[in-house]
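[job 0417] fold request received: Uracil phosphoribosyltransferase
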Amino acid sequence: MKAFFEGIQYLFVNILFAPLDFLRSLELKSWFVANTINWIFMIVCAAAMVYWIIQLKLHQDNGEENQDTTAHSFLK
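[job 0417] inference complete; emitting structure tokens
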């Protein structure tokens, strides 16, 4: 059983986290490059938020948005 957990440790520490260790070692040279994963996540989230707001605006302009307080049963 111990070998199983050591195998999981080896997989994560030496293989799957190797790219993250490389990015961590870059931190002293270039902070922006070391945080590329964070920048990518922020860009994706910002794009998703812009898309969502545009879709909300389109539904509101088409009159599909029901803003009555009784639109949901839990608001009655």
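[job 0417] notes: The chain has one domain: 2-64. The chain is about 70% helix and 0% strand.
[job 0417] exit 0
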